[in-house]
Amino acid sequence: MMLFDKLIVFVFAVVVAAVPFEVDDRFGHIAERATYYSSSWNDGKGKVVYKNGPEGQYSVTWSGNKGNFVVGKGWNPGGSRIVAFNGTFAPNGNAYLCVYGWTTSPLVEYYIIENYGSHAPWDNPEQKSKGNVTVDGSTYTLWTKMRINKPSIQGTATFPQFWSVRDADDLRSGGSVDTGAHFKAWADNGLKLGRQNYMIVAVEGQDSNGTASVNVGVAP
Ligand SMILES: *[C@@H]1O[C@H](CO)[C@@H](O)[C@H](O)[C@H]1NC(C)=O
Ligand SMILES: *[C@@H]1O[C@H](CO)[C@@H](O)[C@H](O)[C@H]1NC(C)=O
Ligand SMILES: *[C@@H]1O[C@H](CO)[C@@H](O)[C@H](O)[C@H]1NC(C)=O
Which positions fall inside the GH11 domain (predicted)? Predict the structure, then answer.
């Protein structure tokens, strides 16, 4: 019994001592929960209140029915991973709930749309259709369009957007998104990403109002 107690104390001490040095690889999920990347951008035209909560949580309330914003939490850099999320999404007007990110060289802004408000993102005369991909319980249609002299992570620039838009019958505010499947489908259809910059589970709103509350890293 005595020996057993000592063994427990010994094992406990080793684990505690090991944590500060090995938190990134051996306890990757713990490190990840503590280090979600948070991003909040808006063009200053509407009122946007973004609350960055603990771990993967955030909420946003927006009003004014003007302007554009994108907020959310995730990773920097982004990449191929299974993104679990769970939330509420209640827009009035045009807004998206999505996995959203950027790459550089080439500069690309990308969207994996899970839910949207009044406006279907593919319904834009500039969008070019690039096929579809079936993953995570639905078929997503693939699209691209050019942005000319628009805001970007490198200042005002000209760059393409890549879009995967979940089927209108399957829109959802929680689940898991296999980002690598979308990256591959884009590449297979000639849409090449560059080096990953940030990738977040985002809420974007445009000329609208609403509320959303999201928990990244937690499946519904
Ligand atoms: C996420 O799911 C849990 C369990 O189903 C629920 O209690 C929680 O409210 C959800 N979070 C959000 C932001 O919807
Ligand atoms: C929110 O947006 C909807 C749809 O555009 C609009 O009808 C409504 O008046 C807006 N509400 C507020 C409080 O601005
Ligand atoms: C997906 O692409 C296939 C092959 O091009 C096509 O036959 C099918 O109609 C497309 N489905 C949707 C939902 O766009």
Answer: 24-217
